[in-house]
Amino acid sequence: MTIRESILPTRSDIRAAQDRLDHVAVRTPLLRFPVLDERVGATVLVKPENLQRTGSFKFRGAYNRLSLIPEEKRKAGVVACSSGNHAQGIAEAARLFSMPATIVMPSDAPAIKLKRTRDFGARVVTYDRATEDREAIAARICADTGGTFVHPFDDPGVIAGQGTVGAEIAAQSRDQGLVPDMVIACTGGGGLSSGIALALQSDLPECVFHTSEPAGFDDYRRSLTSGHREKNGALGGSVCDALLSETPGALGFRILRACAGEGYVVSDSQALEAVAFAFTELKLVVEPGGAVALAALLSGQADVAGKIVSVVLTGGNIDPDVLSRALDT
Amino acid sequence: MTIRESILPTRSDIRAAQDRLDHVAVRTPLLRFPVLDERVGATVLVKPENLQRTGSFKFRGAYNRLSLIPEEKRKAGVVACSSGNHAQGIAEAARLFSMPATIVMPSDAPAIKLKRTRDFGARVVTYDRATEDREAIAARICADTGGTFVHPFDDPGVIAGQGTVGAEIAAQSRDQGLVPDMVIACTGGGGLSSGIALALQSDLPECVFHTSEPAGFDDYRRSLTSGHREKNGALGGSVCDALLSETPGALGFRILRACAGEGYVVSDSQALEAVAFAFTELKLVVEPGGAVALAALLSGQADVAGKIVSVVLTGGNIDPDVLSRALDT
């Protein structure tokens, strides 16, 4: 595996990422929904990254990271491990750079995610979760091909790319004459969350960033309390498949430890209720892992009364069966 | 029934509606989706009115029309006939004006639409489609209560409200440095379509407006060809329940006859394919009647290659069963 750079990204890395992503990534809008404001008694600014290219914010970090690969290394391609949104983000970014992409995916990944990743032009290498080590497979492919491994979150180039979401929230809320008191984002490994927090520190210094995690996978909340990177007890079992990382990323933890506010934790049923609310009332397709920040609001866990709060909907790659389950609850 | 005003609305009526709707209606964004641009070989600007208050553009016309009711007549309330989006738009606008609203709805309307209309605070009076005349029921309620009847499309105040969609498309495309060659909207009675066409005549005079209708309900396309208001052969039977008017509105026809380009007609299965594309690729919840303009693009019927084209997604109040049907096709 390549050695991970340990230098923390800065606001100027995010600015450079904004320039690279301009007219390539979608500058998603900052939406208002009167029905949501009335429901939670706050002014809510929704950042719908489900409307991003590939259906999640992951494209931002992937594209920014690939742009940092030197020209002469590009033809050797890119390698990633993912069963979900990072796979699609990398595959699409690689397509735009005309780079070969190899994604190591579990053989039991949802057929739709395997198909979408292939549709974006990536080669998919499957492995058996029970008997094989995906990181070893990725390392072997990198050794064989000279390809560049891209970690889904513990990488300064990836974090800077995701941080463009925070920079956009700051600029777009200002355009609307509103200054958010708080921003809440769905948090897995923390690439997006730490990127947003970095942007806010510079662009909206009074605004507090909050993580939101699924129950059983609240490693960030516990780690930010204890001061150490805590591990989750399980590796699966939540409906929020996009957020099931084992422990906070080293870089993300260092950034969020310095600036994040209280962390929220929502149950699977609260996440599914938020998916159903987004479908029925907001007319947005959001996956469970992309709805946990909204769920922190709707469940009443986040104290937002009278405040201006921005929530990030991080992804919309939901299986229709899961949506049906959400609508039946 | 009240006498319909026959004076055509103008751009200044739309401007007045914009002022009234400011900070009340949602100024929906003008979205870009690289996946859609690549698919149809054009620059597509999506106007998602499914993200509008109540889930469709109908709120704009309803709120603007109610604002024209003199103060002293407001307490007598508003009366409308609708089984769908107009009902919800009127109910929500009446709630904001603290006016009583009575909506005459068929007893076999989808339970979800009856429920949503009541949830917005309206009184619902049901009738039997087979044996009762809804217009007679509405006229009786107006006579009894002194309430104001609001037609879903053949009303200058309603058309001016819907025209704000066209004014926004013109302003937002300019902000993005793009000038649309054409705008396509889903067309039923023609309130929205004629309002948009009016706004474009003034704000984007080189841009051509096109209707898009479901097969069997292409009364506008046929009327614009023949020069007379043609009737549809059936009153039901299409999955596009939002677009099943009998014949073009008198006002809408006069406006569109003067300026509309070729009309498009899409099959039910093309409309459902567009619903599925919006769900899977755009992450937007769109109902079949709200997807026929998109269907005109995706089906290849509209010749858009190399052009800049704006399509209006008019509504998102879809029954989950219909969405399942769309995703299974």
Q: Overview of this structure, please?
A:
2 copies of one chain form a homodimer. In chain A, strands 1-9-6-7-8 form a 5-stranded parallel beta sheet, with helices on both faces. A 4-stranded parallel beta sheet of chain A has the order 4-3-2-5, sandwiched between helices. The longest helix of chain A has 20 residues, at 156-175. In chain A, strand 6 (182-186), helix 9 (191-203) and strand 7 form a beta-alpha-beta unit. Helix content of chain A is 45%, strand content 13%. Chain A is globular and about 55 Å long. The first copy, chain A, has helices at 11-21, 34-40, 58-67, 71-74, 85-96, 111-119, 134-145, 156-175, 191-203, 219-226, 250-259, 268-282, 292-298, 320-328, and strands at residues 43-48, 78-81, 101-106, 123-127, 148-149, 182-186, 208-214, 264-266, 308-313. Chain A binds chain B through residues 26, 29, 31-35, 48, 50-51, 53, 55, 279, 281-286, 316, 320, 324, 327, and chain B through 26, 29, 31-35, 48, 50-51, 53, 55, 279, 281-286, 316, 320, 324, 327.
Descriptive key words:
homodimer; 329 residues; alpha/beta; five-stranded parallel beta sheet; four-stranded parallel beta sheet; 45% helix; disordered N terminus
Q: What does the overall shape of chain A look like? A: globular
SSE sequence of chain A, one letter per element = HHEHHEHEHEHEHEHEHHEHHEH
Residues in β-strands, percent of chain A: 5-15%
Largest two-chain interface: A-B, 23 and 23 residues
Find the structural class of chain A using helix and strand composition.
alpha/beta
Which strands sit side by side, in order, in the main sheet of chain A?
Answer: 1-9-6-7-8
Q: Low-confidence parts of chain A, pLDDT < 50 over ≥5 residues? A: 1-5
What would you call the quaternary organization?
Answer: homodimer
Beta-strand segment tally of chain A: 9
Distance from N terminus to C terminus of chain A (CA atoms, Å) equals 43 Å
The share of residues in helices of chain A is: 40-55%
Cα-atom radius of gyration of chain A: 18 Å
Mean pLDDT of chain A: 94
Largest sheet of chain A: 5 strands, parallel
Helices of chain A, by number, come to 14
